[in-house]
Design a protein that fits this description.
The complex is a heterodimer of chains A (about 425) and B (about 425). With about 425 residues, chain A is an alpha+beta fold. Helix content of chain A is about 40%, strand content about 20%. Chain B has about 425 residues and is α+β, with helices and mostly antiparallel strands. Classes of the chains: A alpha+beta (about 425), B alpha+beta (about 425).
Amino acid sequence: MKEIKSDILQERYYEINHKSGLKIFVMPKENYKSAYAIFGTKYGSIDNRFKRSDKADYTVVPEGIAHFLEHKLFESEELDAFTRYAETGASANAYTSFDKTCYLFQCSDRFEDSLKILLDFVTHPYFTKETVEKEQGIIGQEITMYYDVPGWMSTFNLLKCLYKNHPVRIDIAGTVQSISEITDELLYECYNTFYNLNNMALVVVGNVNAEKVIALCDEYLKQADNVTVQRVFEDEPREIVKPYAEYNLAMSMPVFSFGFKEACQTPERTHKEIIETEILLEIIAGETSPLYSRLFNEGLINASFSKEYFVGYGYEAVIFDGESVNPQAVADAIKKEVARLKKEGISNALFETVRRNLYGREIMEYNDIDGVANAMIGCYFAGYELFETMDIYKSVTKEDIENRLSHMMKEQYSALSVVKSKE
Amino acid sequence: MADFTKQNISSGIDVLSVPVSRFKTNEISISIAVNLSKETASLNAIVPMLLCRSSKDYPDLTALNTKLASLYGAVLQPSVSKIGETQLLRMGLTCVDDRFSFDNEKISMECAKLLISLLFEPRLDENGSFFGNDVEREKRILAEKIESEENEKRTYVIRKAEEAMFSGEPYATGRYGSKEDVAQITRDKVFSAWKNLLETGQVLLTVVGSADVSEITQLLKACFDQVDRKFQPLKKAVFIPEAAKEKEIKESMDVKQGKLVLGFRVNMKPDNELTYAMRSFTDIFGGGPYSRLFTKVREEMSLCYYCSARYIRQKSFILVQCGCEEENMDKAVSQILKQIDEIKNGNFDYEFRSSKISLTDSINSVYDAPETLEGWYVSQMNDKCVVSPVESAALNNTVTKEQIIECAGLLSLDTVYKLVSAEGVE
């Protein structure tokens, strides 16, 4: 058991390599009443093509299967997980993202009983032909519901503009068509590949101690087979697919996503590159930036405007989104500001303000046990150490940011997606 | 357990503090509550937004945002909500605690001063009125907020159902008012609205964290001492014990999925001692994943993609919302009603047991995030008696099965609202 401390944050956590193969992190929080546990696998919607270390060929599975599997895992031959949690009072949930699937609960009482349920149901799949068919209807409705959510449609249409082959362009839940191809056998195949404890992590934050968590893992987890899995993607061209997409919904105010596809020469970015880019985005379009103030005063953006460094295995983009009466004008203004900063450089004052701002915001994140737990599992799967963030904020220089900018946000790799009413 | 203190510092002005050191932040907010009315809703809503955009000392957005950033990323948030027939205008500031500053700066006091100055010292022109440009910008933003709520169909259908159900009552007015009312706003009207809020509103200062509450209180009091206060106690919400006759509204729109909302009148006033039982009833009916709407209507019968119930204590009603295809809507309505009958007949032992444990557990979790803790207390601003989460959890544990059955008998269906896909309408 390794202890990792942060003097700046006045926090510590423990990292454990469990004998089962599972990586465990425990962060006790003094004087908190509740605890939050998250058990996840490095397996998300982008993992449609993969190769197991014990097989010669790679496997291709239908889009949306990771999310489908997440839904189905709550079921068992006897009681489903929600019914079991109803006995302990924990509030439980799960989510699937592009690159991970996580099962979680929060409780202020009977933590150990709830953790037993979590460890048990995630390690005991139960799929049948009948239950798979029933779920196809339910998930089909969930997929349809998102077709009416403007922000969701805007984001995915942008990803389709930027990416030709990478599966990040596909809706996390797949399509009604793709999920109809899912069978119980395919679910077992994906489960046995990705729900190997060597590919998973458990994070617990809050009113807990590490010994209790380890003792329960000793009791509930068997040693995993020594199999690893490799992500296999088709090559993604540097070019975008198309520069503009439009989708119509009954609505009054257009919603947009504007993004730059980045080079992504190797599949993963370093922690430093990520933080540098976050500082850079704050400098370009944060609330203290001249661009933000101008667009705001001109009535082109409102408080819904946001920016994101959208990054994961094999994909990397910078995305700005929000509501605007004139999305094209916002996109043009962003391009212009990026060009100006590339030419004129970043002012010292703005850099320091932004750094202090993000440093404070990072500290705030440590209030919420759910936020910390999710950040921790995300960091681990991406290969970073959580507390490092604070050190990077302290050591990063303006020149680092300018250097980062010089390689990013090239106009010819940008696209705009708009969702608005039919004219 | 007294985990908070509340003191009255002047007529209609209270300070509520939750002294805790476990958080990294201080959460400081000033809330002003007034009666909700169609005539003033948009006008009042614009005030906190305008005040949080600039001030006498920080005359534009960049100046104010730069100040916040230099205070270690302090987050300033104006918000508008409705609690029963009260409109609540809130300005909140979250900042990291002083112990994280680089050189012992008093971040929390600086933030408290800033927040109070935003409320009392806005940016005014040489004639002492708001700048026309500033007001016009906020009008646009408020109108866009209203449009944005319309864009989200889940929010939109609830709003439409409430409008229909409470037609003629103040509750029919949305928290931001309407786009038409926003268009009528002038800078003189906003100025009067701001003055009126300071003079007549019910004010609550809350501090969650380890900041010096007495110092902040003194600051606020000194400012209010300069105001000619004419405090007007808030009216009680119009109480209609039973639905007169069932209304059904059907709207078609270019959407891919239908939505269904049911509004029930609840024959119980907000200060009734059975409201805890009503909260349990709602949870059993359509709250957690053990609820009857989830397990029966959604999981067993697959009639809806989501289906849940919410109890709005301060206005005595329950709202059920579902994502539902048009062909399933009538069946869904009858099945939702059937679940109430099942509860009346006492068939809810499993749900009751689960709900009791789960509600207590989640109420106790309120203590672990400053914003939920603050929200917990602010939502009781109109109540005579403030209850802490731990007290509320204890009350939850006293609820009996008989009380739940009694609660189930207090619902009457008032409004059924259906949003259907335009292709499905003849």
